[in-house]
Design goal:
This protein has a two-stranded antiparallel sheet with strand order 1-2. The protein contains four helices and two strands, in the order αααββα. It is of the alpha+beta class. The model has no long low-confidence stretch (mean pLDDT 78).
Length: 92
């Protein structure tokens, strides 16, 4: 009878949380691919006022998406690091 009163740990199935971040990432990639595939025409552009060139628009879109992903990933990390550094020096 003492065994009945013991709390049983929840099963691993009930602890499973939905992976909404992966779903959001997958949907964002799918939407990006749709936009990229619809924009395959060549465009002319300048790089820092130095180079005039032409390339398919989807290359530029993928390049801009990669830069945005890098900034979106590193921005919070750098901000957290700066906040922790200020705490270490007592400036917070």
């Amino acid at each position: 009878m003492a065994d009945r009163n013991k709390m049983t740990p929840p099963s691993s199935a009930s602890k499973k949380t939905p992976e909404w971040k992966w779903w959001a990432f997958g949907i964002a990639v799918l939407l990006l691919l749709i936009v990229v595939l619809q924009n395959s025409q060549d465009v002319e552009f300048k790089i820092l006022f130095l180079v005039d060139t032409a390339a398919p628009l989807f290359v530029l879109l993928l390049f801009a998406a990669a830069i945005g992903a890098i900034i979106g990933y590193t921005g919070p990390i750098l901000r957290r690091h700066r906040h922790n550094t200020r705490k270490e020096y007592g400036k917070d």
